[in-house]
Design brief:
The protein folds into three domains: 5-66 and 357-508; 74-266, Delta-Endotoxin, domain 1 (Up-down Bundle), CATH 1.20.190; 276-342. The strands form three sheets. Strands 3, 5, 6, 7, 8, 12, 13, 14 and 15 form a nine-stranded antiparallel β-sheet that branches. A four-stranded antiparallel β-sheet has the order 1-2-9-4. It has helices spanning 54-60, 84-92, 101-135, 142-165, 168-171, 178-209, 212-235, 249-263, 277-306, 311-342, 376-382, 386-391, 410-416; strands at residues 5-11, 16-24, 30-41, 61-67, 269-274, 346-351, 358-369, 398-409, 425-433, 445-452, 455-462, 465-475, 481-492, 495-501, 505-508. A hairpin with a 2-residue loop joins strand 13 and strand 14 (495-501). The two termini are 20 Å apart. The chain is of the alpha+beta class. Helix 6 crosses helix 8.
Length: 515
C-alpha cells in the first residue's frame, strides 16, 4: 500500500461499518490525496440510482476528522522530550507557571495527549503481541516470544504511573487553579482504568500461551498490578470501581466519558457547504440569457416582418416564449450533467478545534456509475466470479462511486501545533449505516434436512449477502502508486455478520498525475 495512506475497515456495530483513512503529512507546503471507493451492490438488494439518492447516502454517512495520535512506544514516555510527561515536567519547572494562562492551556492539552497517546501505545504493544503469536511457526516457542513483551508492559506502565503521580504534590497546592487540579485527577483516573483494562486482557493471554512457571509468575504480577490500580482509584475517591453484584452503571459511564475527554484533543472542527453553488448560478444565468436571445430574435423578426399588433406577431411571441422556456431547461440540464461530472458535491473546510486556523480542504462526491466507466484494475481487485454473475442474473452489480479529494496545508499544521507532540497526519473516519441494504433481504436462518445412513438430520442454513468495497488510493505527485484494495461486508437481515479484508493490488502509474 502507499505508505502515506493507510486504511482500516471494521464493523462499528451491527448496522455501521467504520472506514478509517490515515493521511500522512508529506514534506512541502501541501499534501494532496485522491481516494475513490466503489460499492459493488447485488441486484437482489434493490439499491440503485432510482431508490437510493445522494441525499440518502450522505444521511447514512457520518464523518469525523481528527489528528493522528502522535506515536511513542511505551519505554519512550519517561525518556523522550516529545512525551507529554516531560512536557508537563518542563512547564511546572518554569517560574510562576500556575499564574500563566499559556502554561495552564499547555498543561490541559498535555493531560489529554498523555491519555490518548498512552492508549495508542498500549494498543500497538498488544498488536505486536498478537502478531508474534499469529506468525509463530508451529514448532516455535511462543512462550519466549511474548515473555519480554509482557514484562515490558508491566515495567513501563509502572514507570509511567510513578512519574505522573509524582506531580501530585505540585498540582495539589492552593495557588493552582481548580480546573488544572481536576484535569490532573481525571487524567490519573483515565490512565489507571486504561492500564487495568489491558492488564486483565494480558492475564488471559498469559493463561493461554505461557508455560506453567512463567504463567503463574506473570498471573501473580498482573493480579498485583490490577489490585494496585484498583486501590489507587479507591484511595483518591475516583468512582470508577467495578463491583460484583452491582450494575456498574457509573463505572461504564465514567469510563466512556474519560475516553471521549482524552480523544477530544485530537478532533478538528469542520464546516460543510455545497460545492460549486456560485458556478451553478452563473451557468443557469447563461442558460436563461441564451434562451432569451432566441425569444428576442423571433420577436424582432416577426415584428419587422408583420408589424406591431398583428396576429402573426402575437403567435410569434407565444411560440418564442414556449421555446425560450424549453431551451433554458435543456441548456440547464446539459450544463448540470457537466457540473455533476466536473464538480464535487460538498466541500469540507478542516480547521483547528477553535476554528481559527484552516488546515485543509476535503471535497467529496457520490454517484452511481456504469461498469464500463470503472478502471480495469478496480474490476480486477473486485475479483468477481461466475457465482456472482449468476447471483445477479447476468446483469452485473449496481455500483456506487464515493470519491474524496483532500488537500492538507502542511505548514499550517506545523504552526498551529508547534508546542505539542509532533503531528504526522490526520485520521478521516466515516461510519456508514448499512440499514438501507437490509430491506429486501431474506430470512437470515432457515432449516433444511439431509439424509445420512437412512436418517433425516436437520441443519441450520444461514443466508448472507456480499457487499464488496474496492478502494483506489492516489497520492497526487509524480510517479506515485495507485493501490486497489478490496473489503467485503458479509451481511444478513440482522446487520453486519463480519468484515473480510483482502490484500491490496498495486499498479504503477505510467505517467505523472497533474496536481
Amino acid at each position: 500500500m502507499i505508505k502515506t495512506i493507510e486504511q482500516a475497515v471494521k464493523a462499528h456495530d451491527k448496522y455501521q461499518v467504520e472506514i478509517k483513512l490515515d493521511y500522512q503529512l508529506l514534506p512541502g507546503t501541501k499534501t494532496h490525496y485522491r481516494i475513490s471507493t466503489y460499492f459493488f451492490i447485488p441486484q437482489s438488494l434493490g439499491v440503485n440510482r432510482h431508490t437510493y439518492s445522494k441525499k440518502m447516502f450522505y444521511r447514512d454517512a457520518q464523518n469525523y476528522i481528527r489528528l493522528k495520535t502522535p506515536a511513542l512506544i511505551l519505554r519512550d514516555f519517561v525518556e523522550n522530550p516529545a512525551s507529554p510527561l516531560l512536557i508537563i515536567e518542563a512547564v511546572t519547572a518554569t517560574e510562576n507557571w500556575a499564574k500563566g494562562p499559556e502554561c495552564n492551556a499547555r498543561l490541559l492539552d498535555s493531560f489529554k495527549f498523555l491519555s490518548a497517546m498512552l492508549k495508542s501505545a498500549i494498543r500497538d504493544h498488544f498488536i505486536l503481541i498478537q502478531k508474534r503469536i499469529a506468525e509463530a511457526p508451529p514448532s516455535s516457542k511462543i512462550n519466549l516470544m511474548i515473555h519480554n513483551l509482557v514484562e515490558e508492559f508491566l515495567v513501563e506502565t509502572q514507570r509511567i504511573t510513578d512519574k505522573y503521580r509524582s506531580f501530585y504534590a505540585i498540582f495539589n497546592l492552593p495557588n493552582v487553579d481548580e480546573p488544572i487540579f481536576t484535569a490532573y485527577q481525571l487524567t490519573d483516573e483515565s490512565i489507571s482504568l486504561l492500564i487495568e483494562e489491558h492488564a486483565v486482557e494480558l492475564f488471559q493471554i498469559v493463561g493461554e500461551y505461557l508455560k506453567k512457571g512463567d504463567k503463574a509468575d506473570f498471573k501473580h504480577k498482573l493480579s498485583r498490578r490490577v489490585q494496585s490500580e484498583f486501590k489507587h482509584r479507591k484511595a483518591h475517591g475516583y468512582r470508577s470501581i467495578l463491583k460484583e453484584g452491582d450494575d456498574n452503571e457509573e463505572y461504564t459511564y465514567r469510563l466512556s466519558v474519560l475516553k471521549r475527554r482524552a480523544s477530544s484533543i485530537l478532533f478538528l472542527s469542520t464546516s460543510i457547504r455545497r460545492e460549486g453553488t456560485a458556478l451553478e448560478q452563473i451557468v443557469y444565468a447563461i442558460a436563461a440569457g441564451l434562451s432569451m436571445i432566441f425569444a428576442t430574435i423571433v420577436a424582432f423578426y416577426f415584428q419587422y416582418k408583420f408589424g406591431n399588433f398583428t396576429f402573426p406577431f402575437f403567435i410569434a411571441l407565444v411560440v418564442g416564449y414556449m421555446f425560450k422556456d424549453r431551451i433554458k431547461e435543456s441548456i440547464r440540464n446539459i450544463f448540470s450533467k457537466y457540473l455533476l461530472n466536473a464538480l464535487y458535491d460538498r466541500r469540507i473546510v478542516i480547521k483547528s478545534l477553535d476554528g481559527r486556523h484552516r488546515l485543509g480542504i476535503l471535497k467529496e462526491k457520490v454517484s452511481f456509475v456504469r461498469e464500463d466507466d470503472i478502471p480495469g484494475a478496480v474490476l480486477i481487485a473486485r475479483n468477481r466470479d461466475h457465482i456472482t454473475e449468476l447471483d445477479n442474473d447476468g446483469q452485473g452489480e449496481n455500483i456506487i462511486c464515493y470519491s474524496k479529494d483532500i488537500i492538507l496545508f502542511t505548514d499550517a499544521f506545523k504552526q498551529v501545533f508547534m508546542d505539542m507532540p509532533e503531528i504526522t497526519g490526520i485520521n478521516d473516519i466515516m461510519r456508514y449505516d448499512i440499514r438501507a441494504y437490509l430491506n429486501k433481504m431474506g430470512v437470515p436462518v432457515h432449516e433444511r434436512a439431509y439424509l445420512d445412513d437412512g436418517q433425516l438430520i436437520p441443519v441450520l442454513c444461514h443466508k448472507v449477502y456480499h457487499l464488496n468495497l474496492v478502494s483506489q488510493y492516489t497520492a497526487v505527485a509524480s510517479q506515485k502508486e495507485k493501490v486497489y484494495k478490496r473489503s467485503r461486508l458479509v451481511l444478513n437481515q440482522k446487520g453486519i455478520k463480519r468484515v473480510e479484508i483482502d490484500v491490496p493490488v498495486k499498479t504503477r502509474l505510467k505517467q505523472s498525475i497533474a496536481g
